[in-house]
Amino acid sequence: MLVNMNFTSGRELQELCNRALEIETKNSRDELCNIIELKIRRIEEREKGAWGQPSGDETYLELLRKLYILLLNDYEIDTDIERLGVEAATLTDSNLRVVFITHEPRVWSSVDSVYRAMLNDARYIVKIVYVAEQHENTKGKNDNGVLNIYRDRYGVIVIHENEYDMAIDNPDVVFYVKPYNGRFNGINKKYSHNSVMLAGARIIYIPYSMETTRNFLEYNFQLPMMYHAWRHIVYGPVAKKCAARYGYRGGYNVVVWGHPKADGIARTELYQHEIPKGWIKKINGRKTFIWNTHHTILDGGMSTWSQHGEAVLNYFKKHDDVVLLWRPHLLLFGVLVNNGYMTEDELGDFKKEVSSHDNIILDIDEDYRPAFWVSDAAITDGTAFFSEYIYTERPMIVTTNTPTILWLWRELQDCIPIAAKTEEIFEFIDMVRKGQDKYKQKRQQFRKKQYFIPKTGTVGEYIRDKIYSDLVEEISSAFRIAKGKDCK
């Protein structure tokens, strides 16, 4: 008994039947036969992949071969092809099957609103698969604990990588939020984008880190996943331009559909319940500054921890009318220990001392968004953190060693102060303390120009609809056969 093909395979087969019915010449018949031969070879290759043959491929191959044989016969076959098209439609899933590959909970905001939009849409069947990572500057975490965070905090059911079989599920689309494919983060090779594509799925990449700087161009646009992705979704036109200039294929597969993080960052009123009660008690109505320090503290890195770290902490220890909500990059403490800045014991004592102050909160929460929601302003290194904070439309100052590495550093200077000296950070704090925000209007104009947000609905809903319409349009326009007379 034949099992159903997934949405993509079934629609492709139906489209091939439609093309067969349009054939007018021997040349066009031969051209379509060549297309089918190539399609058969590619499907047969999937059996050699890490996942083996996807469940619907046996059906797909059997019906493709039937169509091929019909086309080779030199008699009227329209009725047989029509019958085959009907059979293909009967054996095609009516829903797009989508899998979201996720890792530590803090990356979930990159696809959260897309998942929820699809979950409530009858056109989709969605699943989330957790794929564990290893990095030299992090300690291993209990996988079950991570799955529990997803369940208890975000209300989503996540399948562990060892419990999921892509060959059986046969998804049409697989989402990625990290492009490294094990280059920097060790992952199960079965979940590399190459293995997933060989299983027949289209890759959609939404970066967990929003592109901002020139020195990260390789990680933003030049890794293999960016080349192979069916769609690489970016937040605004500047990212598309950089992809066209520095990436693959002139940015052909890069689309400005907005970033789903906008849905969770800007709509603060929906998430007040997720702000830790201990924070609210400690803040107690005082102006609160989120401070983000990157982990790249070695030569040429993005972090300004070495230049400003001690001075910023000492400032807040002496000024208890304002609150510092310090959110270090999750790798920073590992870098400090692994490179001899502190021992493990010294790091533990350091954390305790910092947290003991009435007006300093050390934020190591899995989700950084509560820090956005509760803060009045931000002090941040020139990384993706600042590009996301722009969604809040609140004041911020960027600390960077080399402003010119920021894509739009000239435009940014007019709407977001860029600090070269520690004193400039203190001046910014004093400005916010006084309720002043001289950059507000220009900052809002910058966001509207550089960040795409749909006029109606959420970014997640927009992406959901664009994926469906683009996929259907791509299939319906595929396999076009040139019309005309046969060559003599």
List keywords for this structure.
488 residues; alpha/beta; Rossmann fold; 22 helices; 13 strands; 12% strand; disordered C terminus
In brief:
The protein is α/β, with parallel strands linked by helices and 488 residues long.
Number of strands: 13
Q: Structural class of the secondary elements? A: alpha/beta
**What is the CATH architecture term of the largest domain?**
3-Layer(aba) Sandwich
Radius of gyration: 26 Å
**What is the domain total for the residues?**
3
Shape: elongated
Spans with pLDDT under 50 lasting ≥5 residues? 484-488
CATH topology of the largest domain: Rossmann fold
CATH superfamily of the largest domain: Glycogen Phosphorylase B
Looking across the biggest beta sheet, what order are the strands in? Answer: 3-2-1-4-5-6-7
| Mean residue pLDDT | 88
What's the tally of helices? 22
How large a portion of the residues is in β-strands, by DSSP E? 5-15%
What's the CATH first level of the largest domain? Alpha Beta
Q: Main beta sheet: strand number and arrangement?
A: 7 strands, parallel
User: Helix proportion of residues, in percent?
Assistant: 40-55%
